[in-house]
């Protein structure tokens, strides 16, 4: 367990040995589901995974904010004695890893930005995302909508999340199976954490200050996209253009979790970048 400076216990683990990379899972409010991605990086990498504050196996204790999330990530880095490390962030975790790098560039050797949504305001892509989400759900959209708009039991929370997560996979025939695996074991979403951090993000995304900070960032970045992600990949274009040391890998036939649907392509791109 990692103990933060305000006394909150965070679950964390290490897999493998070699050059360090700290993973940041998506959400906000979810837990680490990146074990398969960690196993793909082979025996040259020590992967550090953790559950963010209030999520999964970590203590359910606020406050929930972007600044607090960055401080907790720094606590994980210091707990494992990593003076400098690579970061890999997925979805919301990609944004967290980017913001941490902007604020602590001396601590980050490389950044892998997986399935993020860039630095423009969400209004530029969210309408298309909602359309794509409903289209991907197909016949399941009615049940998803019923669960979305009412107070749910814990069992219904899981069902709702499995349905929503199923839309994140390009291979429709196996989408529910993949989503069920993500939800097993079910560690419960922290909706308060999700609401607080998303509200904060909506006030800061798309600002000139964020773009300027990215333009000045002198850290190598690999952007990894699943070509079939229902979040429009054009959302990431402005980030790619802003970063002076960015490269990009687009994995065909993969959705929001590209390591699941193109494990070989993901491993080749990420391991090649980390060990370059």
From TrEMBL:
Keywords: Hydrolase
Domain (AB hydrolase-1) ranges: 20-262
Gene Ontology molecular function terms on file: hydrolase activity
InterPro entries assigned to the protein according to its UniProt record, in alphabetical order: AB_hydrolase_1, AB_hydrolase_fold, AB_hydrolase_sf, Peptidase_S33
Organism superkingdom: Bacteria
Transmembrane segments: none
Family statement: Belongs to the peptidase S33 family.
PANTHER family: HYDROLASE ALPHA_BETA HYDROLASE FOLD FAMILY, MONOACYLGLYCEROL LIPASE
The protein, known as: Alpha/beta hydrolase
Annotated source species: Streptomyces meridianus
């Amino acid at each position: 367990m990692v103990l933060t400076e305000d006394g909150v216990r965070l679950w964390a683990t290490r897999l493998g040995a070699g050059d360090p990379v700290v993973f940041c899972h998506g959400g906000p409010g979810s837990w680490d589901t990146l074990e398969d991605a960690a196993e793909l990086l082979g025996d040259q990498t020590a992967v550090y995974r953790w559950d963010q504050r209030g999520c999964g196996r970590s203590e359910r204790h606020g406050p929930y904010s972007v600044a607090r999330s960055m401080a907790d990530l720094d606590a994980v880095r210091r707990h494992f004695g990593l003076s400098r490390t690579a970061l890999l962030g997925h979805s919301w975790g990609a944004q967290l890893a980017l913001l941490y790098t902007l604020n602590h560039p001396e601590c980050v050797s490389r950044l892998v930005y997986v399935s993020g949504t860039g630095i423009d305001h969400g209004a530029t892509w969210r309408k298309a995302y909602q359309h794509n989400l409903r289209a991907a759900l197909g016949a399941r959209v009615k049940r998803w909508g019923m669960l979305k708009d009412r107070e749910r039991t814990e069992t219904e929370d899981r069902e709702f999340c499995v349905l929503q997560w199923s839309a994140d996979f390009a291979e429709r025939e196996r989408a529910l199976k993949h989503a069920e695996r993500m939800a097993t074991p079910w560690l419960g979403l922290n909706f308060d954490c999700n609401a607080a951090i998303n509200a904060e993000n909506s006030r800061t995304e798309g600002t000139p200050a964020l773009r300027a900070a990215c333009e000045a960032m002198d850290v190598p970045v690999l952007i990894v996209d699943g070509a079939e992600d229902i979040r429009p990949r054009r959302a990431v274009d402005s980030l790619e253009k802003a970063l002076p040391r960015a490269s990009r890998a687009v994995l065909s036939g993969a959705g929001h979790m590209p390591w699941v649907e193109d494990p070989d392509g993901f491993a080749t791109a990420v391991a090649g970048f980390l060990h370059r």
